[in-house]
Write a structure and sequence with these properties.
5 domains, Rossmann fold, single chain, 593 residues, Elongation Factor Tu (Ef-tu), domain 3, six-stranded antiparallel barrel, Alpha-Beta Plaits, globular, alpha+beta
């Protein structure tokens, strides 16, 4: 098929605006999937995606319509997976921008529009869910035109659920989206926009061939990692793997390789042929760097090897997941994992528990910090427990993000208060229309990790949405806050906080610990300290047995004698007794008030 007959496009939208449902209708309409095989969200293959109704992994599919080859990529909508969206945009020439007619423009809508414009794509705006009673087509249409320009009649109105108006999208795609550019005669170059590990076949790459072509049996090379391998099979996804003899310039498909790890073929890398390699890499490659870290420990040390094996297998198919061994005095051996965000962490935790039958203890999530020592050396730490002694530390830098909140104008005041309470700096407010405001701000990432999104939803009655990207590292007055349970320091609970917030965090955390840790036969003290200075304390009172029940008559000294004996026993128990700390105590920062 010639490049003139090929159209490559993706679907972008905020989370839950109907991307996957629209993809279902497109597959039905083009006859790619037979009706008897059709099911809701057919491109969302993972059980978690089906249950939660969200797209976690992007999914390419090839369709045929009126003599044209249409290559579609269904992308995730959550901010944690925005890197996957940006790679997908590099692989296509057009983008369907889906906006929910009931919710309007949201933060991730704006972020995806900026990415699409930066990639110089043809954007086709689509209003979805027009069949719902709550749909406000006129208002949302104005929001979209003020965002993209153009005329209201340029916006396609569809209902992905019923299929109304979906055929217009296909016609618009063929007429408005330009065919791919690239030379079939040049040295072969293909962009990897996703990769995963298959237990039986090895690493499978999803690629867009830009120049040349890749055939079965070709020796291939990755330009960024210099890894070499063999293209054991090439083909297209319809939506199941369909082997072909060759992938030509302009086409999107898959390559089954003999590579053993996705770290050898990273997302954004360029594939070329070993015997006639291209010199110039395709633009846009960068290393994915996690910035949320948490300790994962098994419920018993016997299961440490099982946990390690499970994470190694998961990391084969998730190039953004990073891990290093960790040891805790209380929890024993575990691993510290790096994630792209809290949703990414939640997905990995659930997959470990479901697919490998593990019971996990997870510590409070934190970010990484750049520590400058008095010797001038700069080190990176991923947990508070790694911080050197205060005497060796000259400066600590924490990551700051550049964020964007979209909310109705009515809630701007509440949102600004929330930003200030998170040590954030409000930078700019712009208005999409008479009802919608966009607030640009900067804030320390650590303050947004736990419940910022929930607070935003509360402050805006559910109408606010949030998008962010890492900006830089800034030196702040940061301290390590340690927690002691029954005079024993629990390193897994230590956190990095700003000095001005330390007392508030200490009091709040100690109160939460008091609710979580069960009462013992002896009094248990819960304390928070910075260095050697204790700044907060709560006590869990002991269970007390009424030892005077069997006494009757006689002098009061008999009662005092028995109570004194009990007190002595409690004090001895306090010296030698150990507190059993439940698993939920280690993620107490995530616990809602």
């Amino acid at each position: 098929m010639t490049q003139e007959q090929i159209r490559n496009f993706c679907i972008i939208a905020h989370i839950d605006h109907g991307k996957s449902t629209l993809a279902d209708r497109l597959l039905e309409l083009t006859g790619t999937v037979e009706k008897r095989q059709m099911k809701a969200q057919i491109l969302d293959r993972m059980d978690l995606e089906q249950e939660r109704g969200i797209t976690i992994k992007l999914a390419p599919v090839r369709m045929a319509y009126k003599g044209y080859e249409l290559n579609l990529i269904d992308t995730p909508g959550h901010v944690d997976f925005s890197y996957e969206v940006s790679r997908s945009l590099e692989a296509v020439e057009g983008a369907i921008l889906v906006v929910d007619a009931t919710q309007g423009v949201q933060a991730q809508t704006l972020a995806n529009v900026y990415l699409a414009l930066a990639a110089n794509l043809k954007i086709i705006p689509v209003l979805n869910k027009i069949d719902l009673p709550a749909a406000d087509v006129e208002r949302v249409g104005k929001e979209v035109t003020s965002l993209l320009g153009g005329k209201p009649e340029d916006i396609l109105h569809v209902s992905a659920k019923t299929g109304a108006g979906v055929e217009e999208i296909l016609k618009s795609m063929i007429e408005d989206v330009p065919p791919p550019e690239g030379s079939a005669m040049a040295a072969s170059r293909a962009l990897i926009f996703d990769s995963y590990y298959d237990d039986y076949r090895g690493v499978i790459l999803y690629v867009r061939v830009v120049d040349g072509g890749i055939s079965n049996g070709n020796s291939i090379k990755m330009l960024a990692t210099n890894a070499t391998g063999v293209a054991l099979e090439v083909g297209a996804l319809r939506p199941d793997m369909t082997p072909l003899h060759k992938l030509d310039a302009g086409e999107i498909g898959y390559i089954v390789t003999n590579l053993k790890s996705t770290r050898e073929a990273k997302v954004g890398d360029t594939v070329t042929l070993s015997d006639n390699p291209a010199i110039q890499q395709l633009p846009g490659y960068k290393d994915v760097r996690p910035f949320v870290y948490a300790g994962f420990f098994p419920d018993s040390n016997e299961n440490y090897q099982t946990l390690k094996d499970a994470i190694e297998k998961l990391a084969l198919s998730d190039s953004a997941l990073q891990y290093v061994p960790e040891n805790s005095m209380v929890l024993g051996f575990g691993l510290r994992l790096g994630f792209l965000g809290l949703l990414h962490m939640d997905i990995v935790r659930e997959r470990l528990e479901r697919e490998y039958g593990l019971e996990l203890i997870i510590t409070n999530p934190s970010t990484d910090y750049l520590v400058t020592l008095t010797s001038g050396q700069e080190i990176s730490i991923r947990s508070a427990a790694e911080l050197p002694d205060a005497g060796q530390v000259a400066q600590i830098k924490e990551p700051w993000i550049k964020g964007e909140i979209v909310c109705p104008i009515l809630y701007v005041g509440s949102v600004l208060n929330l930003i200030v309470s998170s040590r954030g700096l409000q930078k700019h407010i712009s208005y999409v229309d008479a009802q919608l405001a966009v607030i640009d701000f900067e804030a320390p990432l650590a303050n947004l990790l736990t419940d910022f999104y929930d607070q935003l939803k509360s402050a805006t009655s559910g109408y606010g949405s949030f998008n962010y990207e890492l900006q830089d590292y800034r030196a702040e007055d940061l301290v390590r806050l340690d927690f002691y349970i029954a005079t024993d320091k629990v390193d897994a609970l230590s956190v990095m906080v700003h000095r001005i917030e330390s007392e508030k965090v200490a009091r709040s955390t100690v109160k939460k610990l008091k609710d979580v840790i069960p009462r013992q036969q002896f009094k248990v003290s819960l304390q928070a300290a910075i260095g050697g200075k204790f700044i907060s304390r709560e006590d869990i009172s002991a269970f007390r047995k009424d030892v005077t029940t069997e006494l009757y008559g006689g002098d009061v000294s008999r009662k005092k004698k028995v109570l004194a004996k009990q007190k002595k026993g409690k004090e001895r128990m306090k010296r030698f007794g150990k507190v059993d700390i439940p698993a939920e105590a280690f993620a107490v920062m995530l616990r809602r008030d």
